[in-house]
Amino acid sequence: MTLIDNIISWYSAHMNYASITALMAVESSFIPFPSEVVIPPAAFVAGQPESVLYATGVYPIDVLIIVLFGTLGAMIGAIINYGLSVWLGRPIIYKFADSKVGHLCLLSSEKIQRAEEYFREKGNVSTFIGRFIPGIRQLISIPAGLSRMHFGAFLWWTFLGAFIWNCILALVGYIAAGQMSLIKEYSHELSVAILIILGLVVAYFVIRKLLDVKKLNGDKSR
Questions:
Q1: Res 132 pLDDT > 90
Q2: Spatial separation of the C-alpha atoms in residues 38 and 21, rounded to whole Å
Q3: What is the rounded distance in angstroms from the CA atom of residue 157 to the CA atom of residue 152?
């Protein structure tokens, strides 16, 4: 069995809010671990009748709390990446990425460089969009730290991205548990939440564009 297989086996026997938080923190840091084996299985368990869970010795868990603790874990891991990047700086981060330990973590200077290029291209909002992109999700906090992105903005966009991603993963697990009735019951609230989030993203881009135009006009008037 591989290390991930052993962790999955342990997680299956110790599935609770603390283990969800811990594994999602690992997933969101520079240590490679898939969130797909954390949130969906927990959401699947949450969709089972309590009588069935108690009969198998499993303590019931709630899908909404799973998402919240999963998001908390993701933010902890992201903050670790951000903090290490600010503290260590670019030369050491790149040197670590090309070290034997870095390679064990599936890191390389090329991957860090791609993440930096993506951050420069998309700006601060990349910490939101990057949460949905494989290969970028675990690394996007590093260029945010290297560029010393405003910490408040970093937390906000990381929270939004991690929360939505965990909602999607939880939805997959819950559908697998056959709980479509609950999804239908809260479909309106879910649609409203998605619209609010999309509205915030659009507002960010509009405000950013207006500020760029204002700055450009100010430079021309000098």
A1: no
A2: 9
A3: 9
pLDDT tens readout for residues 158-210: 998 899 889 888 887 877 665 544 545 555 555 556 556 666 766 766 676 67
For position 41, what pLDDT does the model report? Answer: 85
Distance (Å, whole) CA 53 – CA 44: 11
- Cα–Cα distance measured from residue 126 to residue 5, given in angstroms and rounded to the nearest whole number: 31
DSSP notation for the chain: --HHHHHHHHHHHS-SHHHHHHHHHHHHSSS---GGGTHHHHHHHHTS-HHHHHHTT-----HHHHHHHHHHHHHHHHHHHHHHHHHH-HHHHHHHHTSHHHHHTT--HHHHHHHHHHHHHHGGGHHHHGGGSTTTTTTTHHHHHHTT--HHHHHHHHHHHHHHHHHHHHHHHHHHTT-HHHHHHTHHHHHHHHHHHHHHHHHHHHHHHHHHHHHHHHHHT-
The pLDDT tens digits of the residues spanning 38-51 come to 888 888 888 777 66
Q: DSSP characters for 56-100?
A: TT-----HHHHHHHHHHHHHHHHHHHHHHHHHH-HHHHHHHHTSH
pLDDT tens digits, one per residue of 68-78: 999 999 999 99
